[in-house]
Amino acid sequence: MSTEKKSEILLVGLGAIGTIYAYVLQASGLANVTVVARSNYDVAKGSGIHIKSLKFGNHPGWKPDNVVASIAEAATKQYDYVIVTTKLVPELLTTPQLLEPFLTAPYIDSFEQPVYVLAQNGLEIEQDLYDAVAALGKTPKILPCALQIGCSLVDNVVEHLTGENIIIGFHRPNDYLTATNTADEQATLDDLTNILKTGGSDARGVPDIPRYKFHKNVGNCTLVSTTVLTGYFLSAFLRQPPTNEGDYTEYLHPRNKDKVEQYTIAEFKGLVKENLDVAKAIGFPSTADCLPPTMADDTIATMRGMFANPAVKDGLMTSTQRDCASNLPMEVEVILGSVVRLAEKFQVDIPRIRMAYAMILVKQNQIFRLKGVKA
Question: 9 CB contacts (<8 Å, ≥6 apart)?
Fold first, then answer.
């Protein structure tokens, strides 16, 4: 029997993605996993969550090793990694505010700072936490992630198909282009990705994580712009009418199909191209697997292929589209605003993204009003 010491890992947020990765970490057998579950604490402690995944299996009543109701409750021991999977709306709560119990006494008087892993959407999300750790006189270790996974959590059931991968790397302030890791950085990445891979994840560490984060955000930026402003998923302008009535109900109606194909799809591709223009100005290399010049056409072709399958039913939504429809705060700043600010920094003209950002800001503003958010 192995006597190798297990890593101590805290995962913050037991939504769909948090549940999948808490399961992966626990399944590895290499980590003691504690989860902060706020809204679903009673379920996680009681009957558990039903995981239905074609990749990771069917697990009724799955529970983490240890569940707590708050970060403050968790901040009582040394952790190797603190993994954050929550939605990020910095207008309401910044990451240092979320993790305050780890950045203040008594924790900082008794324990070393953990490695912080930000498994969240968006760009430029790491610096405020980096600064907060540095202000303690500690060397910050902040690992942003680029995730490709589609899963949902409804009525305590997490549904996930087969697609999943996570790319992880070190945040370096104002450094977008470093292409090598130090020995210490590589050792940390090797340790964390080994735990994830042992648990069944397709995980890898890279030295140039900003490039992969940007690649992921191209899709998010384009999909959020399109779905939030129209209120429809891409099936509304890419899917052909069903051959058999009742297969699905959301598709491109023949009446003005030609105009949608002429204008809407062109503007969708234009959104992708503007993102790629910013990537080029930053200096990111273009490769087949990351920021390829064919990304706009590739995205459309992939979506058309998906919608050609009648088994793909109605109801697909981006998480931000779902938030908007439910009058919940959206990840506007980290997905769209970050691209606008990078474009300003690198002097790139992105009129489509700026327009989308400007209009969705109004929706966000009114959600704040409806929720009674304090000024």
Answer: 25, 31, 32, 33, 34, 79, 80, 81, 82, 83, 195
DSSP helix/strand/coil, 118:
strand
For residue 117, the one-letter residue type is V
User: Mapping DSSP to helix (H, G, I), strand (E, B) and coil, where does residue 71 land?
Assistant: helix
Give bridge partners of residue 146 from the DSSP assignment. 167
User: How big is the CA angle at 227 (ends 222 and 232), to the nearest 5 degrees?
Assistant: 145
Q: Given 168, 184, 206, which residue is the final one in a domain? A: 206
Nearest 10 degrees: Cα torsion 343, 126, 39, 58: 90
Q: Produce one character per residue of 41-64: b if its CB has 16 or more CB atoms within 10 Å, e if not.
A: bebbeeebbbbebebbeebeebbb
Is 159 within 8 Å of 152 (Cβ atoms)? yes
Q: Is the pLDDT of residue 1 over 60?
A: no
Task: List C-alpha distances in Å: 331 to 65, 149, 351.
Answer: 30, 17, 20
Cα(318)–Cα(236) distance, integer angstroms: 13
121 and 232, same domain (yes or no): no
Q: Same domain, yes or no, for 158 and 104? A: yes
Question: Does a structural domain hold residue 265?
Answer: yes
pTM: 0.96
Other beta carbons less than 10 A from residue 105's beta carbon: 8
Q: What is the pLDDT of residues 272-326, one digit of tens each?
A: 999 999 999 999 999 999 999 999 999 999 999 999 988 888 888 889 999 999 9
Mind listing the pLDDT tens digit for each residue in 325-364? 999 999 999 999 999 999 999 999 999 999 999 999 999 9
Give the domain range for residue 133. Answer: 7-206
Based on the fold, state whether residues 197 and 222 are members of the same structural domain. no
